[in-house]
Design a protein that fits this description.
Blueprint: H1 5-28, E1 40-42, E2 49-51, H2 52-68, E3 73-76, H3 77-82, E4 96-103, H4 105-109, E5 116-123, E6 126-134, E7 139-144, E8 148-151, E9 154-155, E10 167-171, H5 179-185, E11 193-197, H6 201-209, E12 215-218, H7 223-235, E13 239-242, E14 258-261, H8 264-275
Parallel strand pairs: 3-4, 10-11, 10-12
Antiparallel strand pairs: 1-2, 4-5, 5-6, 6-7, 7-8, 8-9, 12-14, 13-14
Helix pairs in contact: 1-2, 6-7
């Protein structure tokens, strides 16, 4: 009898964690604060960086995860950069591992520990499980749909924000946004909202799930940046909405910007503001 994905996760979640730790120990941490100039390249521009750690960690994870779940495919940030057609696997019927080997590459390059490795498992557009590993901080957050969210084995519960204070919202960093995207996010510069530029998307989602950040508002939809964190927030009691008032879809076609927040009321408030952008 064919094993279901739920059965696979019950049996193999620890193996996924081991694959993450192994990839980070072999390819990421040895290069942290030890990068040579020729270890870093630009992709689309000076703020869009890639390192040997990104490429080699993704290669290692792709091999390990693909072998772990026969019939699955891997959609990794660097593989899609090399061949954009591979992103189409998100629309297929096979289980998909969504991988960002180093989320927060700029922080990694500058010797800041605010980076992480993101892995999510999705099937037919639904994210089923996620792993957020902040290797330099020794933190691992996990979530399985319907089973809760955890940080280093302890349950996460975002909870509502304290009443009467401004909502802190991490937004797309200005270095990574077009003028049009900046304009669409400018509606958050208003009474009752305290926006700030985001760092690593994965760590911002973790902050929402921990109840340390009220919401995020992002203007791009690359699945590797969002899949793991969105499930983490959901399983911690939060939710996410696009500008159209619909849940974010990892398969794409979302009305942007979108928000993920620590509770439904906060998500609705931020999404309502985003809808007012021209």
């Amino acid at each position: 009898m064919t094993e279901t994905i739920d059965e696979f996760l019950t049996r193999s979640s620890a193996d996924v964690e081991d694959a993450l730790r192994t990839a980070a120990a072999a390819e990421i941490l040895p290069r942290f604060r030890c990068l040579a100039e020729d270890d870093v390249d630009q992709k689309s521009g000076p703020h869009d960086l890639v390192t040997d750690a990104d490429r080699l960690a993704e290669k290692r994870l792709t091999e390990a995860l693909g072998a772990m779940l026969p019939g699955s495919v891997v959609v990794g940030e660097e593989a899609v950069h090399a061949n954009p057609a591979t992103y189409g696997a998100l629309q297929g019927d096979a289980p998909v591992w969504i991988v960002d080997p180093v989320d927060g590459t700029r922080q990694f390059v500058h010797g800041d520990d605010g980076f992480c490795t993101l892995v999510a498992l999705a099937h037919r557009g639904v994210v089923i499980a996620s792993w957020t590993y902040a290797a330099a901080r020794g933190q691992l957050a996990t979530a399985v749909r319907g089973r809760g969210a955890f940080l280093d084995g302890e349950p996460l519960f975002a909870g509502p924000p304290a009443p009467g204070r401004d909502l802190v919202v991490a937004t797309s960093h200005p270095d990574y946004t077009t003028d049009e995207q900046k304009h669409s996010l400018r509606v958050l510069w208003t009474d009752g909202i305290a926006p700030r530029p985001c760092g690593s998307a994965g760590l911002e989602y973790l902050a929402v799930a921990r109840g340390e950040l009220d919401a995020v508002a992002f203007s791009w939809e690359a699945a590797w940046d969002h899949a793991a964190g969105l499930l983490l927030v959901e399983e911690a009691g939060g939710t996410h909405l696009t500008r159209a008032g619909e849940p974010f879809r990892v398969t794409g076609g979302n009305a942007l910007p979108f928000t993920a927040a620590r509770d439904a009321a906060t998500a609705a408030r931020v999404a309502a503001l985003l809808r007012t952008a021209p």
